[in-house]
Amino acid sequence: FREMVSDNSTEIEKFWETDGNLAAYKSELGLDPKDLEGKKILDVGSGTKETFSKEAAEYGAEVYSVNPKLKHLKDREQLQGWIPKDPEWQKRSVAAKGEELPFKDSSFDAATALWSISLYLGQEEQLKAVQEIIRTLKPGGKLYMAPRGFSGARNMPIPNESVLGKEALGWLKEHNHSINEDEKGPIVITKSSDERAGETRAN
Question: Angle 166-174/123-136 helices, nearest 10 degrees?
């Protein structure tokens, strides 16, 4: 994996230069800014400047940013010193990992994970993160994840099982959560409409 990350370092650096802005979320996750209005969104693996959160607020969305890097003093100081141009925008930053979310069950309308889960976590960690995110979603809420692979594999079909693993797909099926079958676009998981489904913390 380290070799794969090294080989694609230019692509990673280019993405982080955007700090995960709204354009990147639209391109990679298929999010339509017009659909964000009034939504409470969990953003797992946000950039330290929370660009997506700030830009989504212009469309009426309330974004909660989760990033383990916020535990580091340097990043906290950077955030404290960054004053947004929009005085109506409010930071909602949480220093945490996707596998251990400090939120109550059924808290969010949708969740996003751009780069943070599909590429940077092993399948065991991915399962825990998916379980936790599903737990915090409202019934019918959606988790958007991307990409399925680095640029060299973008035009190749990559099955959900190759990204998340058989165990994760089995867990989703067992709890009646659905997942899209598009093998090239973003992974979209929809939480079951059963309010009890998935509302158990990952072990």
Answer: 20
Mention every residue, 6+ apart, whose C-beta is less than 8 A from residue 94: 64, 65, 66, 67, 70, 102
Checking if the pLDDT of 86 tops 80, the result is no
Q: How far apart are CA 184 and CA 170, in angstroms?
A: 21
> Is residue 78's pLDDT more than 70?
no
Residue 107, token pair as written in the block? 């808290």
Quick check: helix, strand or coil at residue 27?
A: helix
CB distance 130 to 164 below 8 Å? yes
CB 127 within 8 Å of CB 160:
no
Q: How far apart are CA 67 and CA 52, in angstroms?
A: 13
Query: Token match 């003093």: residue?
Result: 73
pTM of structure = 0.79
Q: Tokens for 9?
A: 């370092």
